Amino acid sequence: MPGSITYRLILLALLPVFGVLMYMEGQKYDPALIRFQSAGYEGDPLASFFPDEMAGFVRHGQVRTYTTENLYEYVNGHAEYFISAGFRQLAVGEYGERGAEGSGPAAVVDIYDMGKSIQAFGIVADESGGRVETLGTGATGFRSGQGISFVKGQYYVRIAAYNEKVPLDLVVGEIDGRIGAGDDPFPEFARLPALGEVIKTRFIREGYRGLDFVNNIIEREYRVEGKMLQVFLFPGGKDEGKRLSDAFLDYFRRSDIEYEEIRKKGHRIYEVHDPYEGDWILIPLTDSLSGLFGHYDDNIIDALLTRYSEPG
After folding, report:
1. Residue-wise over 58-87: b if at least 16 C-beta within 10 A, else e?
2. What is the C-alpha separation between 105 and 64, in angstroms, rounded?
3. What does the alpha-carbon distance between residue 37 and residue 44 come to, in Å, rounded to a whole number?
4. What angle (nearest 5°) sits at the alpha carbon of residue 218, between those of residues 212 and 224?
5. Rounded distance, CA 3 to CA 33, Å?
6. Contact 121, 184 (CB under 8 A)
7. Distance CA 284, CA 304 (A)
8. Shortest CA distance to 118 belongs to which of 200, 194, 190?
9. Could you tell me where the beta strands, DSSP code E, fall in 181-266?
10. Which tens digits make up the pLDDT trace of 105-115?
11. Calpha distance 221→197 (Å, rounded)
């Protein structure tokens, strides 16, 4: 028993020594661990799109990046929307006046890497309510209050200004120039025809008009002489366009949907008598596929075929 008591007393006496040793070990650190955020963020390719200074404002802090794993931390409640549209990564940079780092940003720049240009365009089309236009800067996008959003290749860029001194057009030009031409240009939506008044343009990633085999569709809605129509375009390329055309014809046969082949202006088109959608037009093209829903007549079909026959 006395030996046992002595042993316990020795252990109690050593506890402060153990505590000091653990504290000293805790003060040893790897500088790389302290710098891991900076190295990871600044080394990211998206970070190169953010200059240290632009339009008279300087960048405050580091460029922050988000992936599918933590996007919800920045766009809580809207993260799944971006992820389902093909989101890969987001980079965020804040800008303000020099020496005013603690007063909040004057402008915030978000650059979303959506993987493909058609997916980036889908986002800008949705966010704009379909009112995408060519801005004065030459970028394709829309203005909203004190902000501008635009698409450049596979990137969706959103710029929000919180200071009226921020020259938004200059900021757009700076970011646009840094992104460059982009690896995945997206001219397809420009092929849509000029018909009456454009109401909205949108991108449907999956299940166009409830058809699970019809994905990645651009649709533009028009008002022509007071009547509504929608033109859709599938810009998937020659092989994919033919595959989708064959899938449509197979679907018509399996579903007992009547259709007839028509030759017009050198094109083979199909007039579909759909019990669900009404009569509509399917137009196989040499490099894609298009169609027409809603009100149409021979003049509208001719205008559409003429547009698709034009180069570019």
Report:
1. bbbebbbbbeeeebeeebeeebeebeebbb
2. 14
3. 11
4. 120
5. 46
6. no
7. 12
8. 190
9. 197-204, 217-224, 227-234, 258-264
10. 999 999 999 99
11. 9
Paired residues of 217 in beta bridges: 204
% of the chain residues with pLDDT over 70: 82
Q: Which amino acid is at 293?
A: F
For residues 149 and 126, the answer to whether their CB atoms sit within 8 Å is no
Nearest one of 168, 176, 150, 158 to 74, comparing CA atoms: 158
Between the two ends of the chain, the Cα-to-Cα distance in Å is 97
Q: 């366009």: which residue's tokens?
A: 241
Residue located via tokens 């302290």: 34
User: Beta strands 227-234 and 258-264: pairing type?
Assistant: unpaired
Query: 284: number of CA atoms within 13 Å, CB side?
Result: 19
Report residue 251 CA to chain centroid gap.
Answer: 31
**Helix and strand tally (H, E) in the chain?**
8, 15
**Residue that is written with structure tokens 């109690």 in the block:** 12
What is the Cα–Cα distance from 125 to 193, expressed in whole angstroms? 17
Tokens in use for 258?
């009547």
Could you tell me the two tokens for 151?
């698409």
Buried b (16+ CB within 10 A) or exposed e, 7-40: eeeeeeeeeeeeeeeeeeeeeeeeeeeeeeeeee
CB 108 within 8 A of CB 100: no
Residues 12-61 pLDDT 10s: 454 444 443 333 343 333 333 222 233 334 457 899 999 999 988 999 99
Segment (H or E) for 89? strand 89-96
Phi then psi dihedrals of residue 178, to 5 deg: -70, -35
- Tokens encoding 214: 């019809």
**304 has a pLDDT exceeding 80:** yes
What is the predicted pLDDT for the residue at 202? Answer: 78
